[in-house]
Each structure stands twice: as structure tokens, then as C-alpha cells.
Amino acid sequence: MEAREILRHVDHTLLKATASWAEIQALCQEAIEFGTASVCVPPCYVARIKAAYGDRLPICTVVGFPLGYSVTAAKVLETRQAVAEGADEVDLVVNLTQVKNGQFDRVLEELQQVRQAAGTRVLKVIVETCYLTREEKIHLCQLVTQAGADFIKTSTGFGSAGAALEDVALFRQHIG
Hints:
lyase; alpha/beta; cytoplasm; Aldolase_TIM; six-stranded parallel beta sheet; TIM Barrel
């Protein structure tokens, strides 16, 4: 597989707390130049990117980022606003406190509500694998699938560890 083909599957991302508009513009230009899957940016930039670039690049933003423990109503509101402002994709951080407390019914309910709020937009669920047991990861694969999300992701990049090959293999085994 050639580099350009790989880039078509990569979200070009800038989520640091101090991201400036100039940095976001550079990110967008690089995404257009290299043909990445999308730009993933803080929610406060979605409308501005949409106004500046129109449909020249898909826009992804984050919900409940980076810790995931926002209340469901806030995540639903964030999702609705992101969609209204032009987001094509939403990266939702799962509520790890609920996972760790075994409240999987609440996790599923939240996933379903955000799925509904996202409508036809792509929904990716970030599960932050560095904090999870193997059993929790498998259970989340099932919930993410049941809720109708489009993708599962291993990490925010802000946790204690990033993506691990064994987690990707586990997801592949349990989701496909």
C-alpha cells in the first residue's frame, strides 16, 4: 500500500489546548494537500473551518474530550452543535467511570443517544484502552457495535499510553 493510500484513512489531528487558528489553517491545508480522511479539531473551530473551506475537506470534532466523564446530556448537546456547525464526523470519548463501575447499561444508553444526535454523520467511539481490562475492551466492542457507531478507536492520545497493536487485533477479532 502506498503512502497516499494510507493517508486516505488517517484523521489529520490537532487537539492541543493551545491550538491557534493559524495552526488549524495549516492543518487544513496539509489535509487537502495530502488527501487525509479528515481534519480532527477542537469543537470551537468547526464552524470557522466550514466557513473557510466549505466541503473541500471532511471535518471531525471531539465530544466529551479528553476524559469522557461529561454527563450524557452535555455530550448530546455537543454532538448536535457540532453537526449544526458542519462536522462530518464525531469522535466520542466513552465514559470510563461508568465502565469501571460496571454501569454498561448507562454506557450503552449514552452511545445510543449520541448516535441519534449525530444522525447520518460518522460516529467514532474512543475507549482509551490503556485504562481497560481485556474483558472491558471486549464488552465495549459489543456495546459500540450495538449502538450503531461506525468505528472504535483505542485512545485520545492524552491517556497514559497510546494505541497498542494487541488492542487493534482484539478489536478486529470482536468487531471485524
